[in-house]
Design a protein that fits this description.
The chain is an alpha/beta fold. Strands 1, 2, 3, 4, 5, 6, 7, 8, 9 and 10 form a ten-stranded mixed sheet that branches. The protein is elongated and about 60 Å long. The two termini are 34 Å apart.
């Protein structure tokens, strides 16, 4: 088989990762935002195959994961939102020198598959879609949910939406709730809508009110496998990870 430059580069990169973590096969404990779940579930096995390390993922909204870290959770790598990551670095919970942006994501609107798609092409159209909907939902503790609360206040529609808004726990993502018929409209990160076949992406929020979230990775200060954790971050930020990130509704960091 002819070795193309891309194939050679991929093999060399995998060898570099393996060499960097050589010595023993480590178990790397990863705490990660739900926004990266589907991407990490595909990239994780690729990393394990390349390095012989094993990954153990805990997925949740960023806010409760931060709370777990502050309570003393044992982990090697955290992949959370920028404000939370930066705060944990300041607290000495994450090693700032290892911080690297993995992916970017935008918020979007979802409806049940087959349902009419409202116009959300402008801010006014977005407002009208929410006001006309019988019910809306979002995860209350998620970064998107926190942003939406403030956005509705700024748009002057918070009071009108209260009676028809369902605030969800992290265990019930907005796209999942919409697919199950729990609400007419759900709002979350686009990467959290695409995995649900029963839900359909209407589109991103209008550019002028879009929430663009960046998700950095960093090694925990108490990591038991810091070298393997660094190798995993290097893998996630390599060019070879880009196609997977894009396929899952994300952009490279």
């Amino acid at each position: 088989m002819r070795m193309t430059p891309a194939l050679i580069a991929g093999k060399l990169f995998a060898l570099a990762l393996f060499t960097a973590g050589a010595g023993h096969a480590a178990e790397i404990k990863v705490l990660a935002s739900n926004a990266l779940k589907t991407a990490l579930e595909e990239l994780g096995p690729q990393f394990e195959k390349a390095t012989e390390h094993k990954l153990s993922f805990t997925f949740n909204a960023a806010v409760p994961l931060k709370a777990e870290i502050e309570k003393g959770a044992v982990f090697d790598v955290a992949i959370l939102s920028t404000p939370i990551t930066d705060d944990l670095v300041k607290q000495g919970k994450l090693v700032g020198a290892t911080r690297a942006d993995v992916a970017r994501s935008g918020a979007g609107l979802a409806v049940k598959r087959g349902a009419p798609k409202p116009d959300i092409s402008t801010t006014e159209a977005f407002k009208r879609a929410l006001l006309d909907a019988k019910s809306i939902c979002y995860v209350e503790q998620g970064a998107t949910g926190i942003y939406l609360k403030g956005l509705f206040e700024r748009l002057g529609i918070a009071d009108q939406l209260k009676g028809k808004t369902k605030l969800l726990p992290p265990s019930n993502p907005a796209a999942h709730a919409v697919a199950n018929g729990e609400a007419e409209i759900g709002m979350t990160q686009i990467s959290e809508i695409l995995p649900y076949p029963g839900a359909e992406l209407v589109g991103p929020l209008p550019a002028e009110i879009q929430l663009s979230s960046v998700y950095p990775a960093a090694v925990g200060t108490g990591a038991k496998e810091p070298d393997a954790a660094k190798a995993f971050i290097k893998f996630l930020t390599a060019p070879s990870a880009i196609p997977v990130l894009k396929a899952k509704g994300l952009e490279p960091g």
